[in-house]
Structures are given as C-alpha cells and as structure tokens.
Amino acid sequence: MNIAYYFSGILLSIISFSCKTNAVKQEAFPKLSALRDSIEQQVYEDINAVVIYQKGKLLVEEYYNGTTKNDIHDARSVGKSVASALLGIAIDEGYITSLDQPLSDFYDLKDYENYDEQKGAIKLRNLVTMTSNFDGNDDDFDTPGNEEYMYDQPNWVKWALNLPLDSTRQSGESWQYFTAGAVLIGNILNQSLPKGLEQYAKEKLFQPLGNENYQWAFTPQGVPSTAGNFRTTALGFADFGQLYLNGGTWHDQSIISEQWVKESLSIQAETPFEPNFYGYFWWIKDLVLDKVTYQITYCSGNGGNKIYLIEELDTVIVILASAYNTRYGHKQSREITSQFLLPIVQREFRD
After folding, report:
1. Three-state SS string across the chain, please?
2. What number of other Cβ atoms are within 10 A of residue 204's Cβ?
3. 236 close to 213: Cβ distance less than 8 angstroms
4. CA distance 293 to 311
5. CB-based burial label for 29 (10 Å; 0-12, 13-18, 19+)
6. Residue 155 in contact with residue 220, Cβ under 8 Å?
C-alpha cells in the first residue's frame, strides 16, 4: 500500500469530518453569540451559566459575568427537586414506607400548637406535591406559613408544625407553594436515615454521579435544608437533570427507581400559574415552538434558575442565574430558552 496515499486519505476524512462539525457549530454559534451580546448589554441580567446536554453529550457550555465551570451556584428551590430524588431513594430502600405515611408517624403533634387530628393525617404525598392544607402560601404574605416568616425562627420544623390548618381546604384538594413542607420532608428523611440526610445524599446520589463539588445550606438544627439554596456547578446540575432524563440510571447504575422518576415527572397537581402542573417537587408545562408542542419537566428556583428536561429532544437545558427576588428572573430564563436555546437543540436533534 502507498503509505502517503493511505495517510492522505485519513487526512481528507478528518478534514471532511471537521468541516461538517464546524459547519454545524457555526450554525449554532450565532444564537449563542447573540445571547452573549444580550447578556453583556444587560438585556438579560444576572445570567451566570448555560449548559445543554443532548443525547447524553455536552452540546453547549457557556459562562457569563465572570463565572467559571468550577464555580458553584445557589439555584434556590432547585434544591427541592434534589430532596425529591433523595426521598425516592429512601422509599426504594425501605427507610420510608411510602408517600402515604402521615405526619403522625414521625411527630407527636399534640406537642405542637394548633393541634388538629387532620394535621396528623397530612401525608408525605401532600407535602411533596404542595397539596397539604397547612395555612401557608409562599405567594401570599398574609398567610402565617409564608416562608419569609420561617427563616428568622430558631427552629424551622417546630415553627412549621405549630402552624394552623387552612379551614377552607382539605389536604390533597388544591395546590399552594409551601416551602415549609419541603423542610419537613428533609427533617423526616434526616431522622429516618441511619447516618442522616447529608451522608446519605453523599453516598446514594452525589458519589454515584461523581460530584464532589457541591454544598448544602443547613437549618438552624444543622440538617441539610431542603427548602433550597443547594449549590453545585452548572455541570453538576446538568448531570442531575440527565439522571432523570435517563430514568434514574447513570452509567448503567440504577440510582433512583424508574417508577419514582416517572411519577415525579407526571402531573400530580394543577397549579394556578400559566398552564403549569406539578409532580413531586418538579414542574410540568407545555412549550410551543414553531407550531410544535413539547412537554417540559423542570426544576425551578428563585432568580431564574432552571433545569429543563425535554424528553422528545433527548435534551437537558440548565440556566443558572442570580436575579433573586426580581420580577424578570423567571421571565428572562423562559425567553432565553425559547428564543436562543430551543432552536439550537431542535436543529441538532434533527441532524
């Protein structure tokens, strides 16, 4: 064989592949360049990172406003979805019997204020779907259980269990965003797991994902806070999303049962916001682009933090932002997704 001819053939193949790859990238980059320009010009404010996985591979990894791939981000209530994963694992392993266990299995509610037998009958299912009838609504400052009143308390769990019930509602009837319910889930897990929640999360979730760069916030009692404020890298959040897109497996290892993942990402309650629904600390909605409707399941946190799963496009989209307590935080993340990121993943999926 002519060696020169052989290697020239390989070179031509590499060039051909490289040209095709670059052509694809050049088609994608205008959207990303336009997004970067918009962020630098503060059309979109406080955006820190965008990561996209498609077909299990890294497609886009962009950082803004001085952040880097090693930085950890406070994604606020995205941490509730992490708590949901840990609850599912604990149920799979038998540390929690089922979602139908009532609060009375874990607390002697006669030791708390506003005792009511109905309070003891509230199920874990009601907490993880935001359908308990505690008198607490994070979207209504007039309710005594609004989360803003919790953070100054010396004991968040005691404060939550002292709350009265809403006499106009029955548990399981209607949805209200109630962060204190997520705190109760974390505390129940912490007392039910042999080494506590922090060590359990490390062994059962983060080590299997290969994630060592993460950080919990803690309650005043030193329990990992499942209200939110969980921090990890952009790729760490993307891996967590990919785990759910994989049906609970990671490199052929089952971390969360497929059944739990399916239930978590299925409609369990209807919310009053847009055409939004709720699973087990996960959101669900339809998104229309170019007359195509995609069902999106996602984690969401104050400031515009999102992990979007689009099963039809085999895609995970992560947006990390610090536009905390602003009206524009969530709105701009939705716009960035629909105007800049979805067109990229649509085309790449077809190719």
Report:
1. CCHHHHHHHHHHHHHHHHHHHHHHHHHHHHHHHHHHHHHHCCCCCCEEEEEEEECCEEEEEEECCCCCCCCCEECCCHHHHHHHHHHHHHHHCCCCCCCCCEHHHCCCHHHCCCCCHHHHHCEHHHHHCCCCCECCCCCCCCCCCCHHHCCCCCCHHHHHHHCCECCCCCCCCCCCCCHHHHHHHHHHHHHHCCCHHHHHHHHHHHHHHCCCCEECCECCCCCECCCCCCEECHHHHHHHHHHHHCCCEECCEECCCHHHHHHHCCCCEECCCCCCEECCCCEEEEEEECCEEEEEEEEEECCCEEEEEEHHHCEEEEEEECCCCCCCHHHHHHHHHHHHHHHHHHHHHHC
2. 18
3. yes
4. 12
5. middle
6. yes
Note the Cα 339 to chain centre separation in Å: 21
The predicted model scores a pTM of: 0.92
CB 95 within 8 A of CB 192: yes
Residue at token pair 């406003």: 65
Tens-digit pLDDT string for the chain (351 aa): 444 433 344 343 433 333 333 334 545 579 999 999 999 999 999 999 999 999 999 999 999 999 999 999 999 999 999 999 999 999 999 999 999 999 999 999 999 999 999 999 999 999 999 999 999 999 999 999 999 999 999 999 999 999 999 999 999 999 999 999 999 999 999 999 999 999 999 999 999 999 999 999 999 999 999 999 999 999 999 999 999 999 999 999 999 999 999 999 999 999 998 879 999 999 999 988 888 899 999 999 999 999 999 999 999 999 999 999 999 999 999 999 999 999 999 999 988
5: Cβ contacts below 8 Å, ≥ 6 apart = none
What is the maximum alpha-carbon separation in the chain? 89
CA atoms in the 13 A half-sphere facing the CB of 283: 21
Residues 6+ apart with CB under 8 A from 31: 340, 341, 343, 344
